[in-house]
Amino acid sequence: MFTFAYTKLTRKQGVDPRGLTFAVLDFETTGLHPNKGSRVCEVGVVRMRGDGTVLDEYSTLVNPGVRINNEEHHGITNTEVKTAPTFEQIAGDLLAFLSDAVVVSHNLPYEEKFLSAEFGRLGMDIRKVPGLCSLVLARSQLDRYGYRLENVVNLVTGEWPSAWHSALGDARSLAATLARLINEAPQQLSWDGKSPVTLPEHPRTGSIAPRAAGLRKGTEGWLATLTARLPYMTNPPVPRAEQLADYRSMLGHALSDGRVVGEEATQLAVFAARAGLTQSTARQVHEDFLTEARAQAEADGKVTATELKELTRAGKELAASHLISDLEAAAAADKARRNGPLKGWRILPVGESERISAVMDMAASHGAAVAINPTKTVRMVIADEVSGDDSRLAKARDQGIEVLSPDEGERKLRDVIEQSAGSLFNDSDGQQAAERLNAEKAAETQQGPPEWHQFWRRRELNGGQYYSMFLQPYERRGGASDSEKAAAGGGGCASAAVLAGAVTLAVAEAIRQIVA
Fold this sequence. Notes:
Layout: E1 2-6, E2 8-10, E3 21-29, E4 40-49, E5 54-61, H1 71-74, H2 78-81, H3 87-98, E6 102-105, H4 108-121, E7 126-133, H5 134-141, H6 149-157, H7 167-184, E8 190-192, H8 222-229, H9 241-255, H10 262-275, H11 279-298, H12 305-317, H13 325-338, E9 346-350, H14 354-365, E10 369-370, E11 378-383, H15 391-398, E12 403-404, H16 406-421, H17 428-446, H18 463-471, H19 482-488, H20 492-499, H21 506-515
Parallel strand pairs: 1-7, 3-6, 6-7, 9-10, 9-11, 11-12
Antiparallel strand pairs: 2-8, 3-4, 4-5
Helix pairs in contact: 6-7, 9-10, 11-12, 14-16, 18-20
């Protein structure tokens, strides 16, 4: 058994919710009827403070012990959950992430049914855990048709959920929405309810199989999205060695042609789940992989252009370019030197003074080449003694090559460098125009309240109003569940008679299909 003591976010006087800890919870399940054998097949939790600070995350696929026949709804396959931990194996970890927090979900009575069924199988009796139903919150405070989670998320945040119908993706979207409602509402919301409680301890295994759902290439590549979809955990478990080896092998295969494609990313996501990777452990694996590849390239004492190209591509895909930035910088500097403003200049030094060496070093760093003899391709001779008796000076003059002192040569070369630095299209006013435009855009975004404020109800709904608007229409289909009535805050005196008597769970399940 697992039950909630339903709390509220209200406009009335109460506790400032910005200092509270919330555990935003979402399940993906094999069906809608836990009393008929439906099971949890994925869990996602985002622990956050009411001010919007994310404290921790938890996510894992769950082996339900029954066949999944609703893959089209959440995308979870029987193959994916085959090696995932069971609910019994994750129960202790889940309780730890829900402990000392207000548990939040969109249509919390649905999660309550499954929590009660799953913990009931383990013989555990957990009651009166503080819970907040964000569906009731949205309906009570916002006057907008359509309260499905994705609609509320889009209304309040301006974005659509990025990993829709994944437990962690939905929990993250709801967490972001809750933070906006608490911190940006037109009227300050206060928390009214039971204080968070410490939940009973249960053996923790640390076994996870996080699903990287909703993969897309994006601007940063497939692996960046894969990593971002994994949970951020402050104390991540150690990856499973055997499955990690498979992930690394697949990673090498995917990068062998220099790029990761969508099918390879999907396969990597499966191996990442089996290995139990989180954001931090996945990044560490990627960095170790690139570090080892660099060591292999440097083993012979030289990184070839081909090897550097492979490392650069891999670094970008793995979001670990910082590990080879020195190699890239050296290569870029060498390329810039070879293609500098003095490219094509061959300069002949006559003399061995430090001054000549300094000028020649400067010229070489900008693309000039050092000549040995005064051939026709030489464009300048720099000598300590321009009137000296060195035969190369006489030969240079005979060929019309300019002979200059180190100071004269440096001045001329710097003039060439400065002239080449200009651009045909350089306009000093362009940057100022761009800055003005950016300032206009920033001012525009700051004008007026967020768009969703126009749907803020003039008065929040009380229990009776909520019942008549959102629960009473379903009475003819069997009645609202006790949990739904509790989440709504009760029906008030006017509806007490209507709410009396036994009700069934069937309507709660029907409502879940409509609003979940």
